[in-house]
Amino acid sequence: MSTGWVAATVRARAMARRRVGPGLARRIAEAPTLHAGLVLLAGTAFDAVSRPGTSLRQAEHGIRAEELWELRVLAGWMPAAGTPLARSFAARFEQSNIERHREHLSDRPAPPVYELGSLATSWPRLAATTSLEELHRELAASAWGDPGELAATSLHDALVIGWLRMVARSASDGLSAVGRWVAAGAALVVARRVVALAQEPPESLVRAATPLIGARWSTARSMSDLRAALPPTARWGLGDVDEPAGLWLAEAHLRGTVESDGFRMLRSPRSGPAPVVGALAVLAVDGWRVRAALACAAAGTGPSEVFDVVA
């Protein structure tokens, strides 16, 4: 194993030790106000969002921005062979940027974008577009592929599938858990489209998802039909959910599985991509948990049912 992977593994494990964790996240969720919850983040990896006056939206953006910064730092420790892996994990932030740019081009207010630096896949070229038509053309010519429609839901689904395909390609060697995450994630995307929303998927989405989960799902209109149409590598992501209203539970369980697999990968005695990906998985779920906890504090409701599944 190269010295680069050794250094990256050491850095990744150090990053994972800085996570907030379910205990503190639950205390944040139980806080009576957003400000009280933010105060609890002082001294953590998300200290920057703990200052008074931070809104929920600003805190959510700041937490994700810190996740991306840690990924960019970690990428600097990886050998050159690890760059595609880092870039694929950073693509979920580029996905957010693309969706926010679409809002901007549609004359709607949009949050600030994330600074991707050298981990950008196609963002500099996409960010330079000045119309929805131009954005569509550039997306079709990029690694993201043709999204079909640029309606918000359609674009989101196409970009999520595109991101999952990038992760699958970059983590194909010796990272079987990642393949399961990707397939289950794709299953949830199409479940929302064809079952929860009862919409016929565009051909572009079917083509994009086929390498991950096949194409039989495209004609399903019920959870039982969808489960039967999916390969076993993806079917597990639906869990025991029988109704579309329960898809949130399946998504929460997927996050829990990603985290537990991530911890297992972190404990690998060897340096290399596995513990690095494990750290990224653990930190991604930790960031999601903290954002969910802050939303609970802002609402004054205490931990939600979704939060309880993963916490």
How would you describe this structure in keywords?
globular, 311 residues, 66% helix
In short, what is this structure?
The chain is 66% helix and 0% strand.
How would you describe this structure to a colleague?
The chain is built from 15 helices and no strands. By secondary structure, it is mostly helical. The protein has one domain. α4 packs antiparallel against α14 and α8 runs parallel beside α10. The radius of gyration is 19 Å and the shape is globular. The two termini are 35 Å apart.
**Secondary structure: helix percent:** 55-70%
Taking the sheet with the most strands, its summary is: none
* H-E order: HHHHHHHHHHHHHHH
Poorly predicted tracts of residues: none
Structural class: mainly alpha
DSSP E strands, number: 0
Radius of gyration: 19 Å
Question: What fraction of residues sit in β-strands?
Answer: under 5%
* Overall body shape: globular
Mean pLDDT: 94
Distance between the amino and carboxyl termini: 35 Å
For the record, the count of structural domains works out to: 1
Number of H/I helices: 15
List the helices and strands and how they pair.
Blueprint: H1 3-17, H2 21-29, H3 34-39, H4 56-77, H5 83-105, H6 123-127, H7 132-140, H8 152-170, H9 176-196, H10 203-213, H11 223-229, H12 232-235, H13 247-266, H14 273-299, H15 305-310
Helix pairs in contact: 1-4, 1-14, 2-14, 4-5, 4-14, 5-8, 8-9, 8-10, 9-13, 13-14
